[in-house]
Amino acid sequence: MTTLRLPIATQQAVMRCLRHYLALANRHLETEYSEPKVTYRQRGTTAGTAHLTHWEIRLNAVLLVENGQQFIDDVVPHELAHLLVYRQFGRVSPHGTEWQWMMEKVLGVSATRTHCFDVMSVQGKTFTYICNCQTHQLTVRRHNKILRKESEYRCKHCGSLLKPAET
Length: 167
Prior knowledge:
Elements: H1 8-29, E1 37-39, E2 48-51, E3 56-59, H2 61-89, H3 97-106, E4 126-130, E5 135-139, H4 140-147, E6 163-164
Parallel strand pairs: 1-3
Antiparallel strand pairs: 2-3, 4-5, 4-6
């Protein structure tokens, strides 16, 4: 797999944003948390992840390049908030009240749980499944778990079991 080379200006914009929000948090919390490590190895449709015990943020380079400043403004404070919550409160619900407080009161950012970036360029092969109310696209991993009878999935809306669509 080839790694996407990020422009230096993009990496600098990420670090400016990270440093801005980290400084806000350190002032508000009266702490001196160090800069977390930032890598660009997140894959798939996930924009970013916070690796709590490693004090590291992993960002999806493809989605970053495709979405630019909007990605930086949304994803960097979101993942930083996860790290800060872990340091302040320990292990808690990922998007619970502590995280929402950190996002809104400390960082001054809307507490949004998921991104709405177009993921077509990073989405792998999918398989069509149906329920009683709609069609669903499942990843290769979920499809294979169904085939191996390790898992079954239900629709969040109607609760019915997902079945492979007729081909």
